[in-house]
Amino acid sequence: MNPPPSRDRLFDLLADRATTGLSAAEQAEVDFLLRHFPDVDADELDFAATALDLSLAAECAAPLPAALRQRIEGVASMVTPRAAASSQLLIPIRPKPRASRWRWWLAGGLAAACLLVGIWWSRPPVTLTPEQRYQQLADRPGSIQLAGASDANARGEVLWNNARQEGFLRLRGLPANDPRLDQYQLWIFDAQRDERYPIDGGVFDIPASGEAIIPIRGKLSVNDPKLFAITREKPGGVVVSERKAIMFTAAARRS
User: Fold this and answer.
1) For residue 65, what are the contacts with CB-CB under 8 A and spacing of at least 6?
2) pLDDT of residue 62
3) Is the dihedral of CA 52, 53, 59, 63 positive or negative?
4) DSSP letter at 134?
5) Edge-to-edge strands, sheet with 211-216
6) SS3 state of residue 183
7) CA 110 – CA 112 distance, rounded (Å)
8) Potential cystine with 203: which of 33, 134, 183, 186 (Cβ 3.0-4.6 Å)?
9) Which of these, 39, 148, 135, 26, lies nearest to 83 by C-alpha position?
10) Which among 13, 21, 120 has a CA at the least distance from the CA of 72?
11) What pLDDT sits at residue 86?
12) Predicted local distance difference test score (pLDDT) of residue 103
């Protein structure tokens, strides 16, 4: 005499299918049990296993197609409460055979992972303020801060991390510029390069407040920075500065 259809057996088989796959006979048994339990979503654990696999991957080779991502996010929003209500995936009430208990824990873990992935994808991106980005780099090993000087009574400092090849200018009191007429340009003097040709650190503008935090990314690799200088140039900057209007300098201490 065949045993009566079992909801527990159905979820054991669905957990197996999501993790290791089923034989033809087991798949036929799943189809049979699904007809007896039409309220069970046969795809829940498959989607959960996919979400877990993606969440554990170090880096996706390509973004998910929009349609697939929407389906996974949809499952993530409802898989945990539905599974708990319909099958006791997370907290079994009746004792289970020892051999199948791991499947229930696995199913619960998959459901939770799916929910976490859905929350991760749906959260808004975090945008750091210039001050936060400055402090984040300042806290990294190898970052140095150089106090600057200016004939225009401007104050400020240069933050630079040579290993990361990035930095920031923090300026206060530098005269505001009209970008239609002129722009400020940063130059990085490298001890290992000809000082006649400093590295272009980019152009920038100063607002009416006279205060700004400007990111630095040199056009070339910086080996041993010894001096940072700001000149005032035509809009868009120049390839080689005549250095007629040096507005600010910050020098590294040499041992």
Assistant:
1) none
2) 54
3) negative
4) H
5) 199-204, 183-190, 225-233, 246-251, 143-149, 155-161, 166-172, 211-216
6) strand
7) 5
8) 183
9) 39
10) 120
11) 44
12) 56
Please choose, from the candidates 44, 80, 50, 79, the residue with its C-alpha nearest in 3D space to the C-alpha of residue 65. 50
Burial of residue 92 (CB within 10 Å: 0-12, 13-18, 19+) is: middle
What is the distance between the alpha carbons of residues 184 and 177, in angstroms, rounded to a whole number?
A: 8
Q: Return all residues near 158 (Cβ < 8 A) that are at least 6 apart.
A: 145, 146, 148, 167, 168, 169, 170, 216, 228, 250
- H helix intervals, the chain: 7-19, 24-36, 44-56, 66-87, 98-122, 130-138
What's the rounded Cα separation, in Å, for the pair 6 and 118? 31
How is residue 218 written in tokens? 């040199």
Residues 6+ positions from 148 with CB-CB distance below 8 Å: 154, 155, 156, 157, 158, 171, 228, 248, 249, 250
Alpha carbons 139 and 159: distance in angstroms, whole number: 11
Assign 96 to helix, strand or coil.
coil
pTM above 0.85? no
Of the CA atoms within 13 Å of residue 105, those in its CB half-sphere come to 7
Q: Mean pLDDT, 10 residues at a time, over the chain (255 residues)?
A: 75 79 83 80 70 55 60 57 44 44 58 62 73 93 90 86 94 93 96 93 94 92 93 94 90 75
What residue type is assigned to position 8 of the chain?
D
Tokens 């940072």: give the residue. 228
Element (H, E) at 227: strand 225-233
Residues 203 and 237 sit within 8 Å (Cβ to Cβ): yes
Query: What tokens appear for 202 in the block?
Result: 């980019």
Return the biggest CA–CA distance within the chain.
100
